[in-house]
Amino acid sequence: MSSDIFDVVVIGAGQAGLASAYYLRRAGVSFVILDAEEGAGGAWRHAWNSLHLFSPASFSSLPGWMMPAKTEAAYPSRNEVVDYLARYEERYHFPIERPVAVTSVRNVEGALEVVADGRQWRARAVLSTTGTWRHPFVPDYAGTSGFKGVQIHSADYVSADPFAGQRVAIVGGGNSGAQILAEVSKVAETIWVTPQAPVFLPDDVDGHVLFQRATARVLGGASGPKIGSLGDIVMVPPVRDARDRGVLGSVRPFSRFDRDGVVWQDGTKSDLDAVIWCTGFRPALHHLQDLGVLTKDGRVDVDEGRSIKQPRLWLAGYGNWTGAASATLLGSGRTAREMIPRLVAAL
Description:
Elements: E1 5-11, H1 15-27, E2 31-34, H2 78-91, E3 96-97, E4 104-108, E5 111-116, E6 119-128, E7 150-153, E8 167-171, H3 175-184, E9 189-193, H4 207-218, H5 237-244, E10 256-258, E11 261-263, E12 269-271, E13 274-277, E14 302-303, E15 306-307, E16 313-315, H6 329-346
Parallel strand pairs: 1-2, 1-6, 2-3, 6-16, 7-13, 8-9, 8-13
Antiparallel strand pairs: 4-5, 5-6, 10-11, 11-12, 14-15
Helix pairs in contact: 1-6, 3-5
């Protein structure tokens, strides 16, 4: 165990961890970032090959340094985001240790102790920014285990190539579902299964407009007509192409699986070779179990990012419950700017 006691241990070096580190550095406190990944980029390292943001670089940047962009209208690719995050942490020389997979955080006298791989770090405060990628959610359908086809979550989707010539159901109505459908439908016969009819935004509305409106609504300052929500489908070029090809139609959920595919609510069946679950994620907070702070739904009760049950614990980057739009690149910076001064004042 290190004999030092840090002011703050940050768990996770994705976008929320790096944005927080920027403001911790400016505050002059001692901190270390423990990251489970082999390299920079956080969850973006695992996104599918063709993924692009649906906001321009100027609305997808962390505090202090703008993401480089080829043109103002360009939507950065997954590789460009990973490269940006790598250069960002190098630019500010953040104290990052990796790969370090934190398994537990526990109370000790006057501090919290973070445990990983037989090592311990003590801190006056712990900031958890582990995100959601390591906790993909798949809904529970009857017969799932008996289905003979392939099932993967969008967390494990890489490209459409393995599905060429197959019958594939894409399940989930968000932007990931729409973008993966757009790609897979070029090489396979697809069915898009969504809880309700997807809402498609006008072609000239992209992610930065949604971010601004969603943030204003969360903070109670929105006015004027509602433009959309962060769950509505942004018409990025691949999705527009899918619309032009006539493959954006969706159907409501099936009732169960059988060996060869799915059974619909009316009893009819569709044979499938594969299912891609685009059904989202849950907070990856297993490392906090020993603190006794997790709720039944796997979250932590917080007041402006600070745990109510354990005041030395702070959280960022898990969604609106840890800051307005805090799971986005731009939102993580705004959350850190507001939260870190409160964290530092509480040390």
